[in-house]
Amino acid sequence: MIINPGKLLAQIDSPADLKKFSKDQLIQISDELRQFIVDNVSIYGGHFGASLGVVELTVALHFVLNTPEDQLVWDVGHQAYGHKILTGRKNQFHTNRIYGGISGFPKRNESEYDTFGVGHSSTSISAALGMAMASKYKGDKLKQHVAVIGDGSMTGGMAFEAMNHAGVSDTNLIIILNDNCMSIDPNVGALKDYLTDITTSHTYNKVKDEVWNLLGKFSKFGTSAQEVISKVEGAIKATVLKQSNLFESLNLRYFGPVDGHDVNHLVEVLSDLKNIPGPKILHCVTVKGKGYAPAENGNKTTWHAPGLFDKVTGEIYKKKPTAPQAPKYQDVFGHTLVELAKENDKIMGVTPAMPSGSSMNIMMNEMPDRAFDVGIAEQHAVTFSAGLATQGLIPFCNIYSTFMQRAYDQVVHDVALQNLQVVLCLDRAGFAGADGPTHHGAYDIPSFRCIPNMVISAPMNEEELRNLMFTATTYQGPFSIRYPRGQGVMPEWRTPMRNIPIGQGRIVKEGEEVAILTIGHIGNYAVEAFESLEKEGLSPAHYDMRFVKPLDGELLHEIFGKFKKVITVEDGALMGGFGSAVVEWMTDNGYSAQVKRLGIPDRVVEHGEQIELHRECGFDPEGIAEAVREMVEVQVRD
Ligand SMILES: Cc1ncc(C[n+]2csc(CCOP(=O)(O)OP(=O)(O)O)c2C)c(N)n1
Ligand SMILES: CC(=O)[C@@H](O)[C@H](O)COP(=O)(O)O
Ligand SMILES: [Mg+2]
Questions:
Q1: Residues 225, 186 within the same domain
Q2: Which of 436, 451, 554, 612 is the most exposed place for a label (fewest CB within 10 A)?
Q3: Is 274 an annotated catalytic residue?
Q4: Residues 335, 286: one domain?
Q5: pTM: predicted TM-score of the whole model, two decimal places
Q6: How close is the Cα of 636 to the center of ligand 1, in Å?
Q7: Which residues of the chain have pLDDT under 50?
Q8: Measured between alpha carbons, how far is residue 299 from residues 36, 217, 316, 359, 574 in Å?
């Protein structure tokens, strides 16, 4: 259902329409845009606080820039809802993040206004600089290139790598630092302190204001005064600003801090910046959740992506369970880690900016000296963990599977080659759901399988997660545990922990004709599939392998000795994944069987609910049942 936009917003289908309005009307347009986001997200879900915080900035940018000719790059893109709405997707916005609908992030194949595909953080400056360099090469002097990056994303190493390059680039690049003091959780680290300092420091701002006032006075005296101005400016910059401003020190002209909610002032500033050549940064101070009281004044982490809510009362809807619910895997991880850490003082916790998402916040609250949020810094998180391990500590480094892609070399070079005892917990493994392809945890099994010393495990339920975590503390090397977004299956999950011999799978169900080998939580789909199959007189065997590496050779000898028809199921990329490992093992050990591998195919799978995506890829319960039926019908060729 398309939600009615406000009176002015209704007339805007592109930035060209926006430009038809007067500057004075931008406040009303901003208000209507904000309301439209509230109306939609409250009913259809999605990211929230971040988009509200950049409403004025979004309006001002599209008012001043000549998009899509000028290149506007949003970092992460979870804040780009206003941009989507102003650039022709207002009438589709109710399909945001829904299966078959528009993406929750900017996406090049969705709109010419989406200059760069995003979802992972800290890429915007590099991408915009690449675009700016291309314009310079092509001699296109007028084109603007703007990266909008949050203070949280600015903590990512890539942002610094890009600024290091940008500062010597002589390009038309504007970096807009959207500083709301928040990541998903409160932002952390020395950079955050620095930004707070320059936003609030009286001395810094007084000097800066006086400089600009002085320049303003001189500018009234005409051309000759311009020379004085530039000399004065140059001298002051060289001394005061360069020494005291991080960005100036990197050769990026620094402007701000400005109020990121004053749309008219933003229009003025951006119009001026367009005419200043070279790389520059505008520091905007904004409030996450701005303009919607529950988000602005309440828990900003909750309002990052609140789920559905009553827009009038601000009540976030929670499903009222009729029976005891199984916990989320992330919470089992968080509580179990604290339990283990209480018994073993070597255990430490590390998260790169996902304390709430990974439930590492449980340990951070209970044991603040032993659990760290290191900012959006996956590479650092892994190597920092490696450093801890060299000193005999046992770090549990928890990174979403998709974000672990950032730290691949660190896993290989810093952890595995030195065989260090780092426990890598890969949350959100498998389809992430509504976040879509940028966030699906599809590639961890294939990419980890080839790493020497690496153990790869996945629990089918909460009890196994606890046991694997316990087992990891006893293994002298890198140990990875992957588990999905969402709930497990055991309401009574606080089971006593025990060691699982490394590489040992288990039989879940004896059966005939077909053996189903599963890895991880997806094994519960096989259990569901059996219900319909049993009614049809089909009774496949089911093995929960628990480890992809090392595989359980003993169990596999038993399976391939007994079955000529085997199905493997994984919530991960098929190419090089768990099924591939089983087939490799089969041929290496001289067996031959008909093997069907179910999992994520070699193509981009878009967004939707997890179950919708599993269905699309043929490994939901019905897909598994269908694979069994097909296999039973097919005669094996000799
Ligand atoms: C590489 C990577 N790590 C972690 C995340 C998860 N993540 C998404 S948004 C976000 C916070 C970003 O903070 P900021 O850039 O300040 O944006 P804000 O939400 O405050 O507007 C995080 C940690 C991500 N998208 N990419
Ligand atoms: C934009 C982003 O990367 C995060 O906000 C992500 O959507 C969080 O995912 P979870 O909701 O699974 O924690
Ligand atoms: Mg922020």
A1: yes
A2: 554
A3: no
A4: no
A5: 0.94
A6: 51
A7: 217-223, 225, 638
A8: 22, 45, 12, 16, 40
